[in-house]
Amino acid sequence: MTDSSATAKTIYLDYAATTPVDSAVVKVMVECLGEDGDFANPSSVHAPGVAARVRVENAREQVAGLLGARSGEIIFTSGATEADNLAIRGAGLFQVHKGRHIITSKSEHRAVLDPFKSLEKEGFEVTWLVPEDHGRVSAEQLQAALRPDTTLVSLMHVNNETGLVHDIAALGQLCRSHGVLFHVDAAQSAGKLPIDVRAMQIDMMSFSAHKIYGPKGIGALFVSREPRCNLYPVSYGGGQEQGLRPGTLATHQIAGMGLAFELAAGRMQADQQRLHELREVLWSGLQAIGGVTANGELEYSAPNILNVSFQGVEGESLLFGLDGIAVSSGSACASGSREPSYVLRSLGLDDQAAQSSLRFSLGRSTSRDDIDVVVSMLSAQVRRLRALAPDWVK
Amino acid sequence: MNAPAYAQLVRQHFSRPVGAGCFEPGVPGVVQGCAGSREQGLAVQFQCRLDGEKILEARFLAWGCPHSIAGASWLAERLAGMGLVEAARITGNEVSAALDVPADKLGSILILEDALGACLENARQRHYLNE
To answer: Which residues of A are less than 8 Å from B17 in CB distance?
Structure first.
């Protein structure tokens, strides 16, 4: 049972939803805000403006550095959702003369599904793939869906609910060989899994800063220059960001994002090794409860995410009983919704199994003690709720 | 944080439910009723141990949301010592009002009402209730 505000005792295992801002990132952001800082408009040609512009361009290089990209290929946006919209609508509409067939998966984030739906309403034909390869879209499945008039494919790197990882290199190679643009939502993978946009043959890739200890309200879209990927802007009003994302650049947020990406690059391998070990401890502890199922094979999932169904318990009661633990439920991400997750449904779970699911996402501050406490509390709650259930629903 | 706001009484009954469980087989004077299913979001069983028309103790088993479990507990607490005629007058609206149940959960509270009704019908069939 929870109060509206988090307390110091809260064990936070919802890092896939968002992360706290790294203290070094906070410091850099503050340096761009005050009268003595680099607060000026980065588009201004005077000295303070140039100083702010240096901050922005430095951040662009930091972001590009994590991806194997060039700094000129990074377009800052308000977050991954805007980047997804820019990529899908911008590229889809730019290529309308080539074709109106576009492809995505039913287990994508709403930030991808909804732009696809908007294009569908405008006369595009969308193929909605149902992941068949252990909850993932395989290259063979994608190949079967490609058509001569296909212009765009959008598939996420790491699924935000299950942690399942697409084989982006194989999918990218397939798209490139067919001359089809390939967009990847990397909100959950940037700074957590290695990314090389050239080797993976990615044309566009969306990012968010707040998933890797940067600030909320800032993200980016990688847009390949070689080969050249063209797209229309989705908003108008200025020439910033190569005309693709007009509006005064938010220097403090951009600088924060840049440092967050640089810090993530430096510690990615060690972080993921540690989180993988902790997730194994968590999964082992949960299995000991009995009647638990991992949603998505761990072999194919990112090391920081574990999604589990608890048989014989109702999801809301399970979540309600976890006082002091912050995790996500198998309901839709809209707060308070009791709708079963469409992502878990796409894996074949029925409504009850989806609703009795919890997503644990581990982060830099997660400790072995945290995992032990969570396992202990969950074990007690699951046993209590199962004992309370009538025999005919067990 | 993890869930929408719940009334304090819901928290109290959910964490320390009154009458959770069921009577051992063979205990005299026990009547019971069930309602709901997993598909309906709540499955509940009510039992009342009777002395003539008086409810000595009520117990329940429930699979459902916190409001439902708290509602069953609130009912079990309320029923103890109550006469069957008086118990038959309890409505889902009373449960909803007492626990500040949100509108989207009212269906579950009606299932609780149905389970209590089935329990009282069982008492009627077994002639505990003289009408």
So the answer is: 388
> What gap in Å lies between CA A162 and CA A327, rounded to an integer?
13
The reply to whether A333 belongs to the active site is yes
- Pairwise CA distance, residues A325 & A202, whole Å: 38
Q: Is A327 on the interface with B (CB under 8 A)?
A: yes
Structural domain contains residue B81: yes
B40–A contact, CB cutoff 8 A:
no
pLDDT band for position A342 (50/70/90)? confident
- Is residue B60 a contact partner of residue B19, using CB atoms and an 8 Å limit? yes
Cβ pair A10:B1 closer than 8 A: yes
B3 contacts A316? CB cut-off 8 A: yes
Query: Which domain covers residue A129, as residue numbers?
Result: 23-263
ipTM for the whole complex: 0.92
**The predicted structure's pLDDT at residue A134:** 84
In this complex, is the C-beta atom of B47 within 8 Å of any C-beta atom belonging to chain A? no
A5, A11, A215, B11 from A8: Cα distances, Å: 10, 8, 21, 21
User: Do residue A258 and residue A274 come from a single domain?
Assistant: no
Q: Are residues A227 and A98 in the same domain?
A: yes
User: For residue B82, is it within any domain?
Assistant: yes
Residues of chain A found within 8 Å of residue B15, distances taken between Cβ atoms = 1, 321
**A1 lies in some domain:** no
Is B130 inside any structural domain? no
Q: Do A316 and B65 touch (CB under 8 A)?
A: yes
Please tell me which residue of chain A has the smallest CA distance to B2. Answer: A326
pLDDT grade, residue A355 (50/70/90)? confident
From A350, which residue of chain B is nearest by alpha-carbon distance?
B39
Q: Any idea what the CATH number is for the domain that residue B102 is in?
A: 3.90.1010.10
Q: Closest to A390 (Cβ–Cβ): which among B5, B61, B66? A: B61
Query: What is the number of domains present in chain B?
Result: 1
Q: How far is CA A101 from CA A90, A125, A142, A163, A300, in A?
A: 15, 5, 13, 28, 29
